[in-house]
Amino acid sequence: MDHHQKGLLLTALGVLIISPDVLLLRLISVPPDQLVLWRALLNMLGFWLIVAARHRAAWPAAFRVCGLAGVGCALLFTVGTFGFVLGNHFTRAGNVLVILASTPLIAALLSRLFLHERLPLRTWLAIGVCLCGIGLIVLDDAGEGSLLGNLLALMSAVGLAGNLTLARSKPGIDMSPMLALSGLFTAALTLAWSGHIMLPGPVDLGWLVLLCLVLIPAGFTLIQRGPLYLPSAEVSLLMLLETVLGTLLVWLFLSERPSNQGLLGGAIVLLAMITKSVLDRRPFAAAPVRA
């Protein structure tokens, strides 16, 4: 298995693990500030447990080797988290998802500007087709919203794309341990914002533990390792599958059937990703080169 295929496998597996995110959030009924706070605290613990299990007694070195770039990744991941949560508060969910669908394009532009990294034409085409598919999925929910909410959603897209691009700028260094630091940043800022912490009910706490202590740390650890092997634009492109898979899970478990337009959009995204995967396995497929 070459590096490109390994990166695709790690990222796709990470996206598959976090795909129940939307479903479980629908089952959790706690105030938004407490949801963000508990999510951050459990994420911090979950990411740290993964680092400790992988590196054992040498786990402090896994943080030190990331350096200032790792701190930057943690800050950008925190920006993405707050932009997503607050964006959903100030504007419609459909607006947020449409704007977040621009993450691969932003990552591609950042990589081209700062890393001088070229992407194959098939990757640009896949980004364009997936943007159309995601747009169809959320078009029914999209509305005017608010300028502030739309700007926050754009902030989230830039934060996520910037995090993956910065991780890509340090070849051979695994930045995934710094997601634990991002959990600390997010928890501290949220606590300063809300001013208190409340214990959720047993059912809500159970869903929070499953999602925030297990699924999100495991999934995003794999996704954050993606830039070791793939351009950041390709990692963010694969993350668009979460929207499709999350919609299907909500349909399956909560009987909320998407519209025919949404189903068509999901089919377009899946077809684009499958086609790109087949082309990537062709003999002519080569890793992106630096200018």
UniProtKB/TrEMBL annotation:
Residues annotated as transmembrane: 7-29, 35-53, 65-87, 93-114, 121-139, 145-166, 178-199, 205-223, 235-254, 260-279
Entry GO terms, CC: membrane
Keywords, comma-separated and alphabetical: Membrane, Transmembrane, Transmembrane helix
Domain (EamA): residue spans on this chain: 6-138, 148-274
One Pfam family hit: EamA
PANTHER family linked: ACYL-MALONYL CONDENSING ENZYME-RELATED
Protein's UniProt name: DMT family transporter
Species this chain originates from: Oceanimonas pelagia
